[in-house]
Amino acid sequence: MSSNKKYWTSVEELKEDSSIVEALQQKEFVEEIPVDEFLGNKNSLENSKTSRRDFLKYVGFSTAAATLASCEGPVVTSIPYVVQPERIVPGKSNYYATTMADGFDFSSVLVKTREGRPIKIEVNTMGNTGANARVQASVLSLYDSKRLKRPKANGQNISWEEFDRAVRGRLDNVDGEIALITPTYASPSTSRLINEFSQKYGNVRHVVYDTVSEDSALNAFQARYGRRALPSYDFSKAETIVSVGADFLGDWQGGGYDSQYALGRIPKEEGRMSRHVQFESNMSLSGSNADKRIPVTPSQQKAVLAALYGYIVGGGSTSELPSKLDDAVVKAAAQLRRSGNGGVVITGIPDDDAQALALAINERLASEVVDVENPRLLRQGNAAQVMQLVEDMNAGQIGAVLIAGVNPVYSLPNADQFVEGLKKVDLRVAFSSKEDETAKLCEFIGATPHYLESWRDVQFTGRQFTLMQPTIRPLFDTRQIQDVLLRWSDNNQTYYEYLRQMWSGMLGGEEAWSKALHDGAFQVENGVDNAITGETSAEGGAGINNDVAAARNLSQSSENNGMELELYTSVAMGDGQQANNPWLQEMPDPLTRASWDNYLKISRADAEEMELENYHVANGGLNGSYVNIRLGDTLVKNVPVIIQPGQAKGAVSLALGYGKTEAIQEEMQVGVNAYPLYKNFKSFQNITLEKAEGIHEFACIQLHNTLMGRGDIVKETTLEIFNTKDSHFWNPVPEVSLNHQETPVTAPEVDMWESFDRSIGHHFNMSIDLNACTGCGACVIACHAENNVPVVGKEEVRKSRDMHWLRIDRYYASEDEGFGSDIETKENMSGLGSSLSTFAELEQPADNPQVIFQPVMCQHCNHAPCETVCPVAATVHGRQGQNQMVYNRCVGTRYCANNCPYKVRRFNWFLYNKNEEFDYHMNNDLGRMVLNPDVTVRSRGVMEKCSMCIQRTQKTILDAKRDGRPVEDGEFQTACSLACDKGAIVFGDVNDDSTLIYEKSTDDRMYHMLEYLGTKPNVMYQTKVRNTADA
Amino acid sequence: MKKVKYRHSTSRILLLGVAFFLSFTVIGIAQDQADASAQQDAAEQGQEQAPSEGGESEDSGAATGLGDAASGKSLFNSLCAACHKPYSESIGPALNGVTSRHDMDWLYRWINNSGNLIASGDEEAVAIFEEYNETVMPPFPQLTETQINDILAYVEQPKPEPAAGQQAGGEAGASGGGQGVSMDIILGILAFVLLMLLAVLFLVNKTLRNFAEASGVVLPEKPKRKPIHKAFVENEFLLVVVAVFVLLTVAYFGYGYLMQVGVDQGYKPIQPIHFSHRIHAGDNEIECRYCHSSARTSKTSGIPSLNVCMNCHKSISEVAPETATEEFSKQFYDKEIAKLYAATGWEPGSRTYSGEAKPVKWIRLHNLPDFAYFNHSQHVSVQGTQCQTCHGPVQEMEVMYQNAPLTMGWCVNCHRETEVRMEGNQYYDKIHEELARKYGVEEVTAAQMGGIECGKCHY
User: Fold this and answer.
1) Is A885 on the interface with B (CB under 8 A)?
2) What's the alpha-carbon Rg for chain A, to the nearest Å?
3) Which residues of A touch B453 (CB under 8 A)?
4) Which residue of B has its CA nearest to A949?
5) Least CB-CB distance to A887: which of B306, B371, B377?
6) Per the CB 3.0–4.6 Å rule, which of A263, A656, A707, A894 could disulfide with A811?
7) What string of DSSP letters covers A106-135?
8) CATH class as words, domain B63-158
9) Going by C-beta distance under 8 Å and a sequence separation of 6 or more, which residues neighbour residue A419?
10) Can the keyword Membrane be found in this entry's annotation (chain B) (predicted)?
11) Which residues pair with A277 in a beta bridge?
12) Measured between CB atoms, does B356 come within 8 Å of chain A?
């Protein structure tokens, strides 16, 4: 890089003639090695009883003893069951369908258990809800060493009997209201139970508190349709999606929409795919997948939506937007109109009016993407009620507060007031799985189980239900809140009996219940749900007049001059419930590629204005400045800054869910807590920024920001070209010169190597569709869980020693022209001078770049460069196409990693298990329960990499052999292909021409990464196609 | 690299040496062997005598007028032994002495159909029915009175003394020891004769010298030769050759030693419960996979859980006297069964579980390292490999030991030599057809199917 910037790591460096700086510059080790201290003292040396000969004796003896001791094999004991459960066969896995539901993430999942331990989460295809990275990682949270092991009272361990007696005694004589604060359970049986509890005590106030609120959307929906719910969407039906600040591929309105979205993104045979336009300030997953992304500040988003309403529903043919933005809105409106009922407008603006307008537009479009008849029930929080409760607590009206499954002391914007109020409440009981910030302030703590140890039902929408069932006997002396409430309501049933009785009756018999439990999900036709919950539909009917008023309000409120903040939930951390999960902490953010942190994302222009900088240091780590964020009286100090290409100028964004300090391991106490800025549960805030002292060190794993014209890595084209031109034009096979003739690199005659015959037996291939991949990272976590990939910590990630077998590379390209123009620029370079400066330019991503996500794992090259350089033949090729890595043979020369063009090999620099230095899940007995017993836990000094889940393919083959049948299509799966609910990753046997993978391998869009190298990878990619058709 | 079988070279050389020496002494010992085998025969006869003594008492049983105990024994074993034992309680009461407890007529009726007897309200019958947890004894209407007599004759035999056979064996052993002593004496005499010969030779030599001196014969003086060690040191060639030889030998043995580190072939730990595979798999011919059931479907063969043991041992609380060997007595085995009861919390008296189970910590024999994957079902179910192929003659093992070295070379050798069983398995149909078409081969080994690829076992 040709930069004259002065880099500094400390303020000290800015001073001239600083002796410290001088010393630091001259010497690598500033302190002298204190040899003299123990060798210089002649007296002590002479008086020492240990002579040199003694020393040698000790060395000799200990060496010999160690050698002899190592020759003796250890005695291993095996303890079989006394009575073996019928369904458990040691060495075989069992699967159970259950539901993850923690108030933020809701997902129907399959749990893989081995010898009774859950070890992996998989998508339940019958539930059809998808599973994001946090859901995949939730199995590790079961084995969290910070979990509460038994109930407590005033910091002392007590039994549940004592707990019941003490709390009930106080509840019966409570002075004032009993407040029950819960997250969204979306559980009909729990609602009924709480009703019964309320009836018993009479003065119970149930407040649903969503940590990350969808209050505006709920209010708008309630006003229009009379029910506190959210509309359901089916994006696979969408032709045109216009999103105004809604990160619907992330956690917007409960998330889980990405798999349907991806279905519509793959060009169909008639050459159609959906068109996605995104107006947003924060560069989100949705924005990076959009065909067209327009960066606008939060306040402008309101104006955009109001204008869109005007253009579509009527009332306005002009807007006060800047002309360029107005143009984009006009085009979006035109496309929406053209798509008719295939169009949909969604918004994430935390404003009742904005949400109402989106509903109104969709109603006008008669969009079939939206379903208001069968609404979503995954968010039920009521911001007003929460605020009222805090007030009433401070006013002393509340006699007892039961806080279950939420942590308001950490996550409430006005946590101070809450703490004040809490002190005035006579009886404070927390039901929590951790001794967190809130539980610490409570007199009684009821230890609650993890969802993998619990029963529950979950209502996703009006008609779709799922069940939660335990997959392991509770690890600790825990009791779920439902069981506690049943006891306190003088009901002798357990919650399981209660649930079973209710649903057996509802579904019409025990058999139906068993089937529902087996499947994990079921549908109930209309009307039944109301019978369960006793909920009645109120009249909605906010009409057109209200909408016009809303549009007016919205465009008026859109004026803003200062810096605006958007609070978002990151892909890894969500609302922060699983902050003590090292898999999630180490998972790099899809866009910034930073792990173990949260940071303020800012646009380049704003950063330059404030003299904030990001730069790389010699070891490759990224450093950045700090800022202080001020919002009214609230000051959040020392927030590190990352310059995010595509961030709207005038807007910054910060992730929620970080900065926890209680019940969380020290290593995981990273980032700043952004909840104090989440005033009134609004994700848009006006703030002021000031630069702070110091430099922050990030653990960012991808250095280069753009692809720099290397089209052999990522190929992309537009829908127009895709539909009209031959595939040789947009997906050319690289050619090499053979006898002065250009020959495709895939031709056998240009091959230096003799190929093995792979036509017999299985030959595994993997296809990754760049169109369907949204970059969500579920595959990364699934790979961790399946393959015992270690967590290395922030320091090591910063040194590029991350161990991810599967990474999702993110590339930026110049706006509009896309990757093609970058290639052109590269081709047109002449001379060294020009290429240096042009490359430097290319490396700077544009202000609104296009983004591509590309999952990269070992490509399993048939002509693998790594195999030829290994001096000990520790990496060899199998006839099924897998490049095999033999850990016990590896001596750690790392030649293979050097020779790998795809940079997918990972070296174990340290022993990552049973090592105090790496105090993550592999360093405690509880955390190690998550390890997959079929995969070796690697030791220090060996290379490791993606094995294409050979343990899974081997198992599939063995199962088929044992049953005496051929393997069917879809049976071969890797952890990543199984985790990808979007169908972006497809795996299978390419020798069987009836398989999907065979179809993919003959697709026009198929290409291999860096094909010109002739490595003949077994992983293929499908060219990305963008629907750039602008109105 | 050429493979050399260094493993256990030390023991092999020792064995050769021993064989060498033995070849000189074999003639001397041959006589003793004949003696020993004769004694063995005697011992066996002694053991056989024990049952035949029982036979005599059967005659005495016949004398009581009950029936033929020999045919009664076979009837008892096929019909009654599942629930009854002659001398101790099982699911039903001990039968010895039953004829004195009940009259014969009652016994016939009971055995033919106990249900009717209970239903008829017979006091004796109802009392027994209630005493044994209201377990109904199945009716045996097919038994004639003579047959019932035979059975009763068998169960009414007095309890045999188990020590008789062992005593005979012990005596035989002692007399064998006596023969060993005489052998030592012969050897001693031989050694003494040799010594005497040497002494005589020395004395003759001395006398001859004295005679020569006396008669004035001058003996030619030997020229003084260089001492052999000096000559050796001066001969550089020899020195180098010897040094090379010594170094090679050290390397050979050193390598051999190091290669057997971690190879636990023959590992035979003492288990917390003395479980005899000889009795279960050998004498009783219980199929291996009855207990090790997960070998059929799982990667582990599974140490049987104790409830599997209790399937049979609920009614087998002691071993038959014939099961006892010289080394392990019946009391010993019965004590081991008692350990199983303690572990499962089974109370043989009340025939109930106390609920206090103490899991057994077995010592694991076959320890593959964690980086090697092995799947039993692949070998047992798919290929149909016999358990004995790897585990050796388990049916003869009183104490289980590791039969195979479990080294990678051992695995790979088998994969190279073993043909994959393909017929009748539809999974292989397509592959087999293609192979046959392309290469004209009908049989392929595991190695040819990719069975020696590193990644198939190391991941």
Assistant:
1) yes
2) 30
3) 876, 878-879, 884
4) B459
5) B371
6) A707
7) EEEEEEEEETTEEEEEEE-TTTT----HHH
8) mainly alpha
9) A409, A441
10) yes
11) A242, A292
12) no
Nearest Cβ partner for B303 among A78, A83, A958: A78
Helix (H) and strand (E) counts in chain A: 35, 42
User: Is the Cβ of A52 closer than 8 Å to some Cβ of chain B?
Assistant: no
If you count them, how many residues does chain A have?
A: 1031
Judged by CB atoms closer than 8 Å, whether chains meet at A964 and B304 is answered as no
Closest by Cβ to A966, choosing from B307, B430, B434: B430
Single-letter amino acid, residue A348: G
Of the partner residues A73, A947, A960, the one whose CB lies closest to the CB of residue B455: A947
With an 8 Å Cβ cutoff, is B236 touching chain A? no
What are phi and psi for residue A119, nearest 5 degrees?
-125, -10
Query: pTM (2 decimals)?
Result: 0.82
**So what's the ipTM on this one?**
0.83
So where are chain B's domains?
A: 8-49+166-205, 63-158, 237-406, 418-459
Would you tell me which residues 414-433 of chain B have a C-beta closer than 8 angstroms to some C-beta of chain A?
A: 424-431
B210 at A interface, C-beta within 8 A: no
Query: Chain B window 31-70: which residues touch A at a Cβ cutoff of 8 Å?
Result: none
- Measured between beta carbons, the chain A residues lying within 8 angstroms of B262 are 71, 73
C-alpha span between B206 and B220 (Å, rounded): 16
In angstroms, the separation between the Cα of residue B329 and the nearest Cα of chain A is 27
Question: Cα–Cα distance between A589 and A597 in angstroms, integer?
Answer: 9
**A residues 63-82 lying closer than 8 A (beta carbon) to B:** 70-71, 73, 75-82
Give me the long-range contacts of B141-149 (CB less than 8 A, separation at least 24). B141/B112, B141/B113, B143/B75, B143/B79, B143/B111, B143/B112, B145/B108, B146/B67, B147/B67, B147/B71, B147/B72, B147/B75, B148/B67, B148/B107, B148/B108, B148/B111, B149/B66, B149/B67, B149/B72
CA pair distance A991, A759, nearest whole angstrom: 6
How close B261 gets to chain A, by Cα (Å)? 6
Which of 964-993 (A) contact B at CB < 8 A?
A: 964-967
The tens place of each residue's pLDDT in chain B, 459 residues long, gives 333 344 444 555 555 665 565 555 444 444 444 444 444 444 444 444 444 444 444 444 444 567 788 888 888 887 887 778 777 777 778 888 888 888 888 888 888 888 888 888 888 888 888 877 777 788 888 888 888 888 888 888 877 665 444 444 444 444 444 455 688 899 999 999 999 999 999 999 999 988 888 888 777 777 788 888 888 888 889 999 999 999 999 999 999 988 888 888 888 999 999 999 999 999 999 999 999 999 999 999 989 999 999 999 988 888 888 888 888 999 999 999 999 999 999 988 888 898 888 999 999 999 888 899 999 999 999 999 999 999 999 999 999 999 999 999 999 999 999 999 988 889 988 888 888 887 777 788 888 888 899 999 998
- Mark which residues 737-766 of A lie under 8 Å from B by CB: 757, 759-761
Residue type, A1: M
Tell me how far apart the alpha carbons of residues A361 and A243 are, in angstroms, rounded to a whole number.
12
